[in-house]
């Protein structure tokens, strides 16, 4: 059962999501080929060729894919789909944008955000904000799947797959690239960070995020996250949001500060290896999933924690 994996990359290199999605792709079938579509993407192609389990890397190097717009990329994937039984993408912003278009063009069902591969045609995915697990069995000749990468370990390296150029499917009149505004940070990317310090609505202002959350995150070399309530209140930017409607993460350490633990938030971080909760409400739902809980005033605890980290 041949599988085509759509790589998540920045042209220069691969994103961590690709290696994790590769684990799921390999569980679906083999051989696994990786598609790297971009412009000047030689670095990403070489990184993909080094991933264990990759049989071949297909490279579409064309200006049409420079910004990985969904329409031309989906058009390219469909042009290559004939030789594959399954098409897999990470459930990132790009993957969630491209995969539904591929499924629609192929007239098949999209199987989204899987957390487990039961068989080549059967998958598990969370529903009701992670409170239930749905088992989906697809009878479609071609499976189009997105992978909730937080549920899979990334594959290692050591392979030396062949790299093959493929013809571009061209641009798509339905979309053109206008511009982008990227936030720059010295902190790790939220989706792939090993440590995350997240704040909730209890912070009460964006200034308090800067005063109490960010100093501790910087001392730990951590990414900064936020609950939806904090983002909706304007205390934190959208790209910090962790949860069902934000980023799904599974770091080695997740510190939840002033976050009550709504179902939607828990769905985005409950697979973290170690969860530490700081909240003044001893009955907050976050303590039900926490490995360590500290009941107290975050405005007192966080400065003390920052001081302790300085001493350590």
Task: Describe the overall structure.
By secondary structure, this protein is α/β, with parallel strands linked by helices. The protein contains eight helices and 15 strands. The chain has helices spanning 16-28, 42-49, 70-80, 93-106, 206-220, 228-232, 263-269, 298-311, and strands spanning 3-6, 32-38, 54-61, 86-90, 110-114, 116-119, 122-127, 132-137, 143-147, 162-165, 195-199, 223-226, 253-257, 274-279, 292-295. 47% of the residues are buried.
SSE class:
alpha/beta
Note the beta-strand portion: 25-35%
The end-to-end distance, rounded to whole angstroms, is: 52 Å
**Topology pattern, helix = H, strand = E:** EHEHEHEHEEEEEEEHEHEHEEH
Number of strands: 15
Helicity range of the residues?
A: 25-40%
- Report Rg: 21 Å
Chain-averaged pLDDT: 94
Largest sheet: 7 strands, parallel
Assembly context of the chains: single chain
Query: How are the strands of the biggest sheet laid out side by side?
Result: 5-9-4-1-2-3-10
Low-pLDDT sequence parts: none
Please tally the helical runs, counting DSSP H or I stretches of 4 or more residues: 8
**What is the general shape?**
globular
Which properties best describe this structure?
312 residues, alpha/beta, seven-stranded parallel sheet, five-stranded parallel sheet, 8 helices, 15 strands
Summary of the model, kept short:
By secondary structure, the chain is of the alpha/beta class.
